[in-house]
């Protein structure tokens, strides 16, 4: 998990203890450089820095790495700064900016030189954690505009769609939400095609996206864009696919403790983060790609493990709650973000 700063304690525990993701930017799975100088048509009181920026160096005091990239949307002198996992807002005056994320108690300040390179200093949790990073102007991947957008808002200009673009930099690979101009025509539920690497460029009609969840084994289907279960067909939930935003795609719901499988071929039931109508996010039973890992097998995501198993502490463990107890030599470790409908939900430890 990478942040511009660092996850607050509950998120840090979740990252270390349990993976509520099927895979990064994955179904539960090149551009021009921005003008880094002052835009003559904009206010002279602030430098225009909108667009994609790649982080070239940096780190945090607790040992976490800095963000891989920063995507800046700018309106006048107002800024919305997005990373893989959170969004900060603020403003720039001259070449100096301040952005904050109140939910994570994060504040970042920095300056931008004439080339667009930024020096950034951040603090979180009342100064308990600090981060420093250097970011430089980057070009958008082929096919994308260098215009940052909100996946939940779908706020690109008419004729364009907001899609996550995989971007690789010196600190690794992350994603940025960028506008993509090509118009898709395939409606929700139709067979689709997409670029490799998970949810990204596809031929689905906006705002839907191409996903393997809900499709026949090995296939792809245009999933329904959602911001909560009320926007999905009956018996489906809204799987969050963009960690920093309360939006996702509709996926069939299921029960991880059910004796008989309810998901289609090539799928299994997993507990994955879903967006509620309130905007809150919590783990929910939904159909995800089937894994093969048995108890104790090393894993990164739930979809690495077989049905009924959670990727917990880097290995496949059995799900548990008060009604589904662990073996006598195991303890049911309750998830720190257990679903409100089952606050005792967790994973058995040790694995076997």
Describe the structure.
- With 352 residues, the chain is mainly beta.
- Among the domains are: 1-20 and 30-183, Lipocalin, CATH 2.40.128; 292-352, no CATH class.
- It has 1 helix and 22 strands.
- The chain has one helix spanning 9-17; strands at residues 51-60, 69-75, 78-82, 87-93, 96-101, 106-112, 118-124, 129-137, 144-148, 161-169, 172-180, 209-211, 221-223, 225-226, 236-240, 248-252, 267-275, 281-289, 309-312, 315-320, 331-334, 346-349.
- The chain has an 8-stranded antiparallel beta barrel. A 4-stranded antiparallel beta sheet has the order 19-20-22-21, with no helix packed on it. The protein has a 3-stranded antiparallel beta sheet with strand order 9-11-10, with no helix packed on it.
- The model is unreliable at 1-19, 21-25 and 28-43 (pLDDT under 50).
Number of helices: 1
Instruction: Give the oligomeric state.
Output: single chain
The low-confidence parts are 1-19, 21-25, 28-43
Radius of gyration: 21 Å
What's the level 1 CATH class of one domain? Mainly Beta
Q: What would the average pLDDT be, to the nearest integer?
A: 81
Shape: globular
CATH architecture of one domain: Beta Barrel
Largest beta sheet: strand ordering: 1-2-3-4-5-6-7-8
Number of strands: 22
CATH topology of one domain: Lipocalin
Helix content: under 10%
Give the DSSP E fraction (strand runs of 2 or more residues).
35-45%
Distance N to C terminus: 27 Å
Element pattern in H and E? HEEEEEEEEEEEEEEEEEEEEEE
Major pleated sheet: 8 strands, antiparallel, barrel
Given helix and strand content, the structural type is mainly beta
